[in-house]
Write a structure and sequence with these properties.
Layout lengths: L1 H20 L4 H32 L4 E3 L9 E3 L21 E7 L3 E2 L6 E8 L5 E4 L5 E7 L2 E5 L11 E4 L4 E7 L21 E9 L2 E2 L3 E5 L1
Parallel strand pairs: 4-13
Antiparallel strand pairs: 1-2, 3-5, 5-10, 6-9, 7-8, 7-11, 11-12, 11-13
Length: 220
Amino acid sequence: MGRQGTSTSRSKASASGSRTGRKPSPAVYRRRRLFVGAALLMVAAMVFGGFAAAGAFSGSSSQVSSTGDPTAGPTEAVPSANPTSTPTATPGCNQNLVTVSASTDKAAYGPDENPLLTLKVTNGGTMPCEVNIGTSQMEFLVTSGADRIFSSRDCQAKSEDLVKTIAPGASETANFPWARNRTLEGCQPIDAKPGAGGAYYIFTAKLGSRASPKAVFQLS
């Protein structure tokens, strides 16, 4: 029994070894090459398809090359040769039609009332205009005859630019509550107060080089 078992094991090992060392037939090689080639084509199609999809959703003006070569890279879109598609020139904003006006919330104020000064910027043109309406450009000026009473720039802590696009016919406003105090250039200390008792004052709103017509009000 022992010799027969050993002989059987050796024959199985010999058969297994002969199967392991046997070379595949030409038909098996062809099937393997076809499978590998098909797999490579699927991978290439997925990569190029992903590149094309990414280009379509990237928001850029480039298009995938029409050669179908994924290594060729994107090419710029060619504009239409149709002359009717060329946009006409748009006229620019007329800054001379941007005006500044001044107003107060009341014509006369009692002893315990503070005036509210309003600066208003209006675009009187037909095209939108970009206007710097920041504190770097604004000034609320109160005078009485030749006497310079108050300026918002005298004690302004900091100035900033603020460029906004104002539509045709639209306006931007800025309000300044005036505490009925005097100021000097450089924010020098001053104890004097504006006169009351029915005195008239003039408010002028300024924005850069633009100045408003005078707005007159009375303090009691």
